[in-house]
């Protein structure tokens, strides 16, 4: 498996409140995270940093050779610990009140093929291959609830004035539910984790075209996604983690944090 990440402040925001992480931990598990902080002056950048640092710390302490269900529980527990950490700090300092973050994280076993995605908010995970692109996560947003309830059409959601209103985030409440999903990456498949700075600027077809281009190495695919998002307006921070399952199924260079 090979992995790269990119993060950019965009063309409008003054501060990058996104965080990305991708690495092979010392215990051999592969971990990738995107977190998109919220709160502005209420320190969304601190919330996203705390989320990543807490999840990395918790999962780095795992023993080797855990079973699949144990990995799932470990990822969920790490995200819940991050929620406790952020909520506690926010409750202790008025300037951090109600800070929070989205999170989408993928944890893979030593084979680098099977893993789990943990998710809260509207940062997304996509599976991409030559046959198409599949969104693996469901946005925890007001407009997605309106779509599910039939009150607006999916096309309206893209331009709805409240499209960025979250109904679930990490760190804003003492208790939170984590969406968990198993994932298997086959040969030639990609996993994309991204903040909404990408998906608000590019639709699924555009993302698929950039990722699947056989003429580009993985780094160039990530650069193309970032560049096209900036060209489309770049009105938010843009963060991308892109993983590719190698044909040989062995670890390749390119993992970095």
From TrEMBL:
InterPro entries: PP2C, PPM-type-like_dom_sf, PPM-type_phosphatase-like_dom. PROSITE patterns: PPM_2 (PS51746). Gene3D superfamilies: PPM-type phosphatase domain. CDD domains: PP2Cc. It comes from the Bacteria. Residues 2-245 form the PPM-type phosphatase domain. Pfam families: PP2C_2. Coiled coil: none annotated. This is Stp1/IreP family PP2C-type Ser/Thr phosphatase. It comes from Paenibacillus profundus.
């Amino acid at each position: 498996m090979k992995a790269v990440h990119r993060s950019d402040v965009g063309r409008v925001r003054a501060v990058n409140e996104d965080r990305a992480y991708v690495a092979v931990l010392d215990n051999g598990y592969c971990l990738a995270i995107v977190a998109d902080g919220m709160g502005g002056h209420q320190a969304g950048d601190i919330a996203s940093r705390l989320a990543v640092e807490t999840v990395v710390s918790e999962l780095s302490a795992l023993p080797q050779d855990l079973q699949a269900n144990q990995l799932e529980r470990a990822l969920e527990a790490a995200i819940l610990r991050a929620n406790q950490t952020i909520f506690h700090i926010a409750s202790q300092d008025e300037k951090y009140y109600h800070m929070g973050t989205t999170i989408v994280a993928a944890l893979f076993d030593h084979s680098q093929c099977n893993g789990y995605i943990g998710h809260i908010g509207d940062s997304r995970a996509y599976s991409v291959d030559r046959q198409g692109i599949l969104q693996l996560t469901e946005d925890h947003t007001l407009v997605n609830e309106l779509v599910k309830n039939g009150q607006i059409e999916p096309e309206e959601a893209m331009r709805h004035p409240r499209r960025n209103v979250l109904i679930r985030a990490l760190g804003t409440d003492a208790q939170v539910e984590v969406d968990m999903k198993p994932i298997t990456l086959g040969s030639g498949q990609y996993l994309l984790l991204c903040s909404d700075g990408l998906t608000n600027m590019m639709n699924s077809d555009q993302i698929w075209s950039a990722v699947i281009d056989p003429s580009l190495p993985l780094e160039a695919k990530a650069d193309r996604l970032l560049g096209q998002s900036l060209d489309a307006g770049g009105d938010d921070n843009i963060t991308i983690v892109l993983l590719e399952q190698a044909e040989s199924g062995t670890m390749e260079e390119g993992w970095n944090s």
